[in-house]
Design goal:
This protein has helices spanning 19-30, 48-51, 68-78, 92-97, 99-118, 155-174, 180-183, 206-216, 235-251, 271-282, 307-313, 321-336, 341-359; strands at 10-14, 34-39, 59-62, 82-85, 125-129, 186-192, 195-196, 220-222, 228-230, 232-233, 257-261, 268-270, 288-290. With 376 residues, it is of the alpha/beta class.
Length: 376
């Protein structure tokens, strides 16, 4: 990633008060970007957005992406060069309880962001963040590639598949690569695995649930210990999004479409592995046990094939899962010990940048490997 690229760029983020959005906003601030955000209030208490005082380095507007007029007004005022859409209802179990909210936010919210882009001529690059759960999950042992079918068993996963289809339709109808010289907008969508890291306090997520139990001195209840997920530190896919946005800016039509950003194959681990490792790292007698209650359906096995991002973007994950869990413990123990959440996060961002630059040359050329054309 060219660290100088972002200096002075105007970037519009939706969902900047969420876990991933807060990390991305902090990173962009460090890179010298002019960041404007549009989002609901921070979704948890505590939150990384408030704990790290993310709003201090950006223009932060409270708003709902389901309100098209407000979203269009905010984007028009910001006049961004680059739009990155992260706002979402992000929880599987919540989606069973609130399916209408989930679809209206994740599907119509996507429509509204792309519709707003149509009316703001300053925009040149758009990165739409969905999820690895957008794929029709067949419990395969191999990773899903970008041209696999969209689907989703539960309302959350299905809504993300729908968001991908919306993005593809808008790209074909209004931002086609074939007419790029007329509109000048490059639109890509990105799908990441289970992101973890410091500053996540969401309900019904493994790491926040474990940290909360550790902090209270209670055993962690694990509901699906055999489920395998592509775990990765939140900075890994965010680095991919930033790298992709740079390529969209410089060579738009060549980089539109869908992109996977996941960990190395060896870091797709079962929940039980995470539970054992994290309890050991936390210390202090932390333990976990099986939650034997009835729970809504969740996929047992899901993995991404990231060959396209590695070959065409030169992107590579640089943290092992063991490293990631150490960074997670470092953040939460530091935060609960009285350290500044912003300083911890900024230090980890700096370390991650150094790590990623060790594995990939700053100006590595793009390798044009033959890949199937993504369907979305």
């Amino acid at each position: 990633m060219d660290l100088t690229f972002w200096q002075g760029k105007r970037v519009f983020l939706t969902g900047h008060t969420g876990f991933k959005g807060s990390w991305l906003a902090l990173w962009l601030q460090q890179l010298g970007a002019h960041v404007a955000g549009f989002s609901l209030e921070a979704p948890t208490q505590p939150s990384l957005f408030e704990a790290a005082q993310v709003a201090q380095g950006m223009v932060s507007q409270v708003g709902d992406i389901r309100d098209l007029a407000s979203l269009q007004g905010a984007m028009a005022e910001a006049q961004p060069d680059i739009v990155m859409h992260l706002a979402a209802q992000p929880l599987v179990r919540y989606s069973y309880q609130n399916p209408v909210e989930t679809y209206s936010t994740n599907v119509m919210g996507t429509v509204h962001v792309l519709e707003a882009v149509r009316h703001v001529p300053s925009v040149r690059a758009v990165v739409m963040i969905t999820s690895d759960k957008c794929y029709e999950n067949r419990e395969w042992v191999w990773g899903y590639r970008e041209n696999e079918a969209m689907g989703g068993h539960d309302p959350y996963s299905n809504s993300k598949g729908c968001a991908e289809l919306v993005t593809a339709a808008y790209r074909s109808s209004f931002f086609s690569p074939e007419t790029y010289s007329d509109h000048g907008v490059a639109v890509a969508s990105v799908r990441a695995g289970n992101v973890i890291g410091g500053g996540d306090w969401a309900l019904d997520r493994l790491i926040p649930d474990m940290i909360k139990a550790f902090h209270l001195g209670k055993p962690v209840l694990i509901r699906n210990p055999h489920a395998i997920r592509p775990w990765q530190h939140v900075l890994e896919p965010l680095g991919g999004y930033l790298l992709l946005a740079q390529n969209l800016w410089h060579s738009g039509p060549e980089f539109v479409g869908g992109w996977n950003f996941g960990p190395q194959d060896e870091d797709a681990k079962p929940v039980s592995w995470i539970a054992e490792r994290l309890t050991a790292l936390w210390g202090g007698g932390a333990t976990w046990q099986l939650d034997g209650g009835l729970h809504p359906h969740e996929a047992n096995y899901l993995k991404l094939d990231c060959s396209k991002a590695k070959a065409r973007l030169g992107w590579e994950p640089c943290l092992t899962l063991a490293d990631t869990l150490e960074w997670v413990v470092e953040f939460y123990q530091g935060y609960y010990g009285g350290q500044s959440a912003r300083e911890i996060a900024e230090a980890q961002i700096c370390r991650y940048q150094a790590c990623s630059l060790e594995s990939v040359s700053l100006n590595s050329p793009v390798v044009e490997a033959p890949m199937p054309v993504p369907s979305v």
